[in-house]
Design a protein that fits this description.
186 residues, alpha/beta, five-stranded mixed sheet, four-stranded mixed sheet, 5 helices, 24% helix
């Protein structure tokens, strides 16, 4: 928890520094774009939130197979929710605010045994820091904010539904930036 608080303070400090650094730019330019510009963060290999096998020995809910991209998982003994992303990369949801910026309810979370992390080769989980859904008012494209890459386009309704994101959580902006060239959610 202490590490999470330190990361939040670091992200806030970086955001403040970026805001102060850009304060001298044209007010007309920033008012014209009204872009949503969250702060990018650095990757971390800190897995302090991952439970150990001793903490939880609940059986997997899906016939001992590794969870697939789009699934949300947690162990019985730890409240942390993980999302299996594209390429089976593991992301963790840092708090309820981020969770409910992406989904409407706790429904759809699978309870897994803590051994799933080792069994599926997950030695790293990435924080879905400040994650939220966004679109511009001029385009139907929906993006997810990924603090590692910026806004990443969700390329289809099928992909959006695969991850069970909530249509009601999409925020509209006149512009968003930075938009990544990578489509994370495939």
């Amino acid at each position: 928890m202490k590490n999470l608080i330190q990361r939040i303070w670091l992200a806030l400090a970086v955001g403040l520094c970026l805001s102060l650094a850009t304060a001298g730019t044209s007010a007309a330019s920033s008012a014209a774009t009204e872009a949503a510009q969250p702060v990018l963060v650095k990757a971390t290999d800190d897995l302090s939130g991952l439970p150990t096998a001793a903490e939880d020995s609940a059986p997997l809910s899906t016939a001992a197979a590794c969870p697939t991209p789009g699934q949300r998982i947690k162990t019985a003994s730890n409240p942390r929710v993980y999302l299996v992303g594209p390429g089976s990369v593991l992301y963790y949801i840092p708090n309820e605010t981020v969770y409910f910026d992406l989904w409407d309810s706790w429904n759809g979370i699978s309870i897994v045994g803590s051994s799933v992390f080792a069994d599926c080769g997950w030695s790293t989980a990435y924080e879905l820091s400040g994650g939220f859904l966004a679109k511009t008012t001029s385009s139907p494209r929906v993006y997810i904010w990924d603090a590692w890459y910026g806004f990443r386009w969700i390329p289809s309704e099928a992909v959006f539904n695969k991850y069970a994101f909530s249509w009601s959580q999409i925020e509209s902006y006149s512009a968003i930036s930075p938009i990544s060239s990578l489509n994370w959610w495939e």
